[in-house]
Amino acid sequence: MSMKRNGNSVTKKIVGIAACIIVATMCLSCFAACGENTIASEEVDVDLSVLNSTMVYAKVYDIVTNPTAYLDKTIKAKGSYDTSYYSPTQKYYNYVVIQDATACCAQGLEFECSAANYPTRGTEIEIVGVFKSYEELGITYYYIQASTLTVNP
Q1: How many domains does the chain have?
Q2: Which of 12, 16, 61, 143 is 20 to 30 A distant from 104 in Cα terms?
């Protein structure tokens, strides 16, 4: 009996790690005042910042798997800042990374803003912006055009 329990535990860990790796590779997702207009909180269509860690992760998963349902919606998200460089495009991409309830897995949402200086990686941030799409190298990607980026203490 205990052997089966340990096997299930190991399987769950492997599945969890595999899911994290897959999610990290799928990441598509500013310092204060990213640009044009500041969006009032009542105008936010999807406020991820008020959801508990289980629900926010589920909602972010839905955004990533059903992106067209969120196009042109204003999204508010909290998480840690990350960036990556992709050599085929010779560009850096910025993400707000949101952890799940157990902090074993994370999902990133790509964002853009006009900030001259982005925070350091791992800094807790909050962004507000409109969910949009773009095409690059023949593939459609989705991102948040952030109007504000706030560094959280």
Answers
A1: 1
A2: 143
